[in-house]
Write a structure and sequence with these properties.
CATH class: Alpha Beta
Number of helices: 4
Strand order of the largest sheet: 4-1-5-6
Largest sheet: 4 strands, parallel
Low-confidence stretches: none
Distance between the termini: 19 Å
Shape: globular
Helix content: 10-25%
Mean pLDDT: 89
CATH superfamily: P-loop containing nucleotide triphosphate hydrolases
Order of helices and strands: HEEEEEHEHEEEEH
CATH topology: Rossmann fold
Strand content: 15-25%
């Protein structure tokens, strides 16, 4: 978290719109942190999106769609990689943002499978709030064992490997 994933997704999708490509954007309906329908970064940049409850709904896009953006991929079901393969096989450019690890440092949802089939993976890191090193872990600050717990800075902080495992 806090690495700029959504910011980069928005930047790439807005560039596609500037290029006059037909763009559709999707987000999980469960992610209502900033807005019910828009994809919103921590810096409050936003782009309109369609909330969906199941990844198969993404296949209902308009026939002339050239670029599909998907935010918070880790919250989607395990069919998302197959949905993305179907789109890519039809010539649709698919741009995805999501966490690759959950709060316990384990692979998160369909993201590892998406990374395996992607033509290009851009992995961005936050800055460790403890030591300033590159942070690739999301340390949960609140007590909960739930795999999915929507939250922001009050619930999570970015940490490097050493600080994550120190858990102080």
């Amino acid at each position: 978290m806090f690495s700029g994933k959504t910011e980069e997704l928005i930047r790439r999708l807005k560039r596609a719109e500037i290029a006059r490509l037909k763009v559709e954007i999707y987000k999980p309906a469960t992610d209502t942190r900033y807005d019910e329908s828009a994809v919103v970064s921590h810096n409050y940049n936003s782009i309109e999106a369609t909330p969906v409850t199941h990844s198969s709904a993404i296949l209902l896009l308009k026939a002339d769609t050239q670029v599909v953006g998907i935010d918070e991929a880790q919250f989607f079901d395990d069919e998302l990689p197959e949905v993305c393969n179907k789109l890519a096989n039809k010539g649709v450019r698919v741009i995805i943002a999501g966490l690759d690890m959950d709060f316990s440092g384990k692979p998160f949802g369909p993201v590892p499978a998406l990374m395996a089939i992607a033509e290009l993976v851009t992995k961005v890191n936050a800055v460790c709030v403890r030591c300033g090193s590159p942070a690739m872990y999301s340390f949960r600050r609140v007590s909960s064992e739930a795999k999915i717990l929507l939250g922001e800075k009050e619930s999570y902080e970015p940490r490097c490997r050493a600080c994550f495992h120190a858990k102080d």
